Amino acid sequence: MSAVEKRSVTIRGHRTSYSLEKPFHDDLLAIATARALTLAALVAEVDATRPRDTNLSSALRLHVLEWAKRSAGS
Question: Residues with Cβ < 8 Å from 24, sequence gap 6 or more?
Fold first, then answer.
């Protein structure tokens, strides 16, 4: 299993961090590239739409999972 790595990003003018395993981070970068977004913009989008009781790292993992499910269905 891939070790969890902590990463930092600036969104809406403030620094925040999230922790993801490398495969999730790699897929998050691929999603950002496919959507012509910066990684920070994608993280900001996920952050803005996540339920307030869900932490950012979990929301990012769920976003990657949903993307994978949609991609597999097409």
Answer: 60, 61, 64
Beta bridge partners of 21: 4
| Residue 8 falls in which region: left (phi positive, over 0), alpha (psi -120 to 50) or beta | beta
For the chain (length 74 residues), average pLDDT per consecutive 10?
A: 88 93 96 96 95 94 95 80
Helix then strand count (H, E) for the chain reads: 3, 2
What residues make up the domain containing 48? 4-73
Split into its structural domains, the chain has a count of 1
What's the DSSP call for residue 67? H
User: What pLDDT, on the 0 to 100 scale, is given for residue 34?
Assistant: 95
Q: Read off the tokens for 22.
A: 């490398």
Classified as helix, coil or strand, 54 is coil
